[in-house]
Amino acid sequence: MTTRREFITLLGSAATAWPLVARAQQSGGMRRIGVLINFAPDDPAGQSRVTAFLQALAQLGWTEGGNARIAIRWGAGNAERIRKFASELVALAPDVILTSGSPATGPILQITRSIPVVFVQVADPVGGGFVQSLAQPGSNATGFTNFEYSVAGKWLELLKEIAPGVKRAIVLRNLTTAAGPGQFGAIQAVAPSLGVEVSPINVRDAQQDAGEIERAIAAFAHVSNGGLVVTGGSAASREPIISLAAQHRLPAVYPDRVFVAEDGLIAYGPDRIDQYRRAAGYVDRILKGEKPADLPVQAPTKYELVINLKTAKTLGLDVPPSLLARADEVIE
Questions:
Q1: Residue 266 in 3-state DSSP?
Q2: Are 127 and 178 in contact (CB under 8 A)?
Q3: Cα–Cα distance between 106 and 86 in angstroms, integer?
Q4: Staple partner for 75: which of 19, 80, 82, 170, CB 3.0–4.6 Å?
Q5: The CATH classification of domain 150-270+304-331, taken from the options 3.20.20.70, 3.40.50.2000, 3.40.50.2300, 3.30.160.390
Q6: In 3D, which of 322, 306, 222, 206 has the Cα closest to residue 265?
Q7: 73 to each of 29, 63, 88, how far by Cα in Å?
């Protein structure tokens, strides 16, 4: 297993060595890989995902400092920072770029439609304009989706199951992605059958909108029987969201297990680590000559239901045995 110290050393060597490699590429045959990930560089969730990608690449024969150089940029959930790093990576002219999420994928594809791009954790690549279709991407991008819209309805069902008293739910949705409105629409569709009234909090940049999010949640929490649904695209800014849910004693459902590992209540979503490993396979195929246009966009193969019993107890919730039995992981 790669330690955190080894991981940071690897990042440093990649960042400093690339310009020399770029000048020597023709004689040395070194391949260059860019990575734009929407996490802070010291975020354990981001580190684990990039580490999984790098380890999978190594298993496929692509080793840092051997036959590949990997330049990694960390967006930290900040739209301006992501745009800056997108420009930097494209200017380096890598052989392929890995992007995480629509907030990172969109800026890269606005700059280049020639450098191959492999994305992970994109909910609606067709709606976002990243590909022409899932079966035939048709351009320079392909990758891995993280949700079907129907999963968003599942989030509200799980919230109601773990907190039956919920009558109203506020939905945190990201308007910078095509999936934001679509996920809310799926939640709206199931809400009447569950007896829950839903309303959105619209977010464009979680850091810049932090004050607005806090005010909206505080105002919502003044009335009883409320709950929170956090849709995709928020993992990079999870700490304040989890804190607000705890402060206002709102049962909340999240799209990623990392929220529950950090004291969120319940999460349901794809295995992100698995997506990064699978993405390494697509990067390998592209480096060996295949075109993104010919590689179909793939759906998740593994989903995780994770419950934090300590948080449930703090909220005074008794988790139904049937729900516990379905959980892939229970944090106590």
A1: strand
A2: yes
A3: 9
A4: 82
A5: 3.40.50.2300
A6: 306
A7: 23, 18, 9
Domains 4-147+272-302 and 150-270+304-331 share a fold: yes
Q: Domain 4-147+272-302 classified CATH 3.20.20.70?
A: no
Domain boundaries, the chain: 4-147+272-302, 150-270+304-331
Q: How far, CA to CA in Å, does 216 sit from each of 46, 52, 186, 201, 203? A: 28, 37, 22, 7, 11
pTM: 0.84
Question: How far from 282 is each of 129, 207, 286, CA to CA, in Å?
Answer: 20, 32, 6
Q: Which of 174, 168, 198, 203 is nearest to 186 (CA)?
A: 198
| Distance, CA of 5 to CA of 2 (rounded, Å) | 8
Give the tokens for residue 7.
């991981």
Distance, CA of 241 to CA of 263 (rounded, Å)? 11
pLDDT of the chain, 332 residues: tens digit per residue: 344 444 444 444 444 345 544 434 433 479 999 999 999 999 999 999 999 999 999 999 999 999 999 999 999 988 899 999 999 999 999 999 999 998 899 999 999 999 999 999 998 899 889 999 999 999 999 999 987 788 999 999 999 999 999 999 999 987 766 677 888 999 999 999 999 999 998 876 655 567 778 888 888 998 899 999 998 877 667 888 999 999 999 999 999 999 999 999 999 999 999 999 999 999 999 999 999 999 999 999 889 999 999 999 999 999 999 999 999 999 99
Tokens 């990064």, residue? 276
